[in-house]
Amino acid sequence: MHRNVSLQVIYASSVMMIMGTGVIYPVLPVIAQSLEVPRSQIGLILTVFTLPSIFLAPVIGMLADLKGRKVVLSSCLLLYGVAGMGITFVDSFSSVLVLRALQGVGYAGVMPLTIVLIGDTFTRETETSAQGIKVLLDRAALLVIPIAVGALSAFAWQMPFVLYALTIPLAFVAMLRLRERAVVQEERPQNYLKMVGMACLKIRSLTIFSMSSMRFFLEFSFFTYLPIFAIETLGVSVIKGGFCSESSP
Fold first, then answer.
1. What one-character DSSP code corresponds to residue 23?
2. Closest by alpha carbon to 156, among 34, 23, 28, 246?
3. What's this model's pTM, rounded to 2 decimal places?
4. b/e sequence 177-206, b meaning 16+ C-beta within 10 Å
5. Rounded Cα distance, 223 and 154, in Å
């Protein structure tokens, strides 16, 4: 399993998506101070990143089902990486928000596909193990990324965003090496949308959506405030502030 190139691409893509918030939490106080952003507005960096997922995730999911996973995954990875790295070259809060929103579009396409592609790649007997390894790697990344970001942001607030450049070569590897099932278009787009809409309105689906939304609301709220409180109120260093985000769920 560990030699499967497709699986390695999927795992790497998932870790890159974890960086979507993992890079941001520790550096929020530094951005607020450097760009003179009020604390009441600094959370917009996370808001504009997650907002595209609400509206675009179903659309991108439909494109992946009808046109193929590989093209959608590679395109979204490239957008995510270019937009993220682009933040290193801007010096205004409005520019940061625009690029973060573009990153959010890429995130909306990649994150759900990392789960779906594992299901496509493995049989039911091995899929559970593959999904478990994905979760393990994601959690390991959450332990390492905030520390690295805290150290980099001590030099300049833009420095941590260089890490997003790693997604760009990954996009090309995904396009060239990722295996996917052949797309069998059995339904018209109109019928497909109707089927998806009916599935989303089921009680089970609504329950899952509600629980997931609450989880991310609590996570983003708490870990947006935590490093700001630690650095500005408790007076800890930026590097130590990165440790505060290690326990992010």
1. T
2. 34
3. 0.80
4. ebebeeeeeeeeeeeeeeeeeeeeeeeeee
5. 19
The amino acid that residue 151 corresponds to is A
What phi, psi does 234 have (nearest 5°)?
-85, -15
Give Cβ neighbours of residue 74 (< 8 Å, ≥ 6 apart). Answer: 171, 172, 174, 175, 178
- Tens of pLDDT, residues 70-96: 888 999 999 999 999 999 999 899 999
> Do residues 192 and 66 lie in contact, with contact meaning Cβ atoms separated by under 8 Å?
yes
- Residue ranges of domains in the chain: 5-244
> Given 1.20.1250.20, 2.60.200.40, 3.40.50.970, 3.10.450.120, which CATH number is that of 5-244?
1.20.1250.20
Q: Whole-angstrom Cα distance, residue 20 to residue 229?
A: 21
Nearest to 227 by CA among 153, 137, 132, 139: 153
pLDDT digits (tens, 9 = 90+) for 169-194: 999 999 988 877 655 555 566 666 67
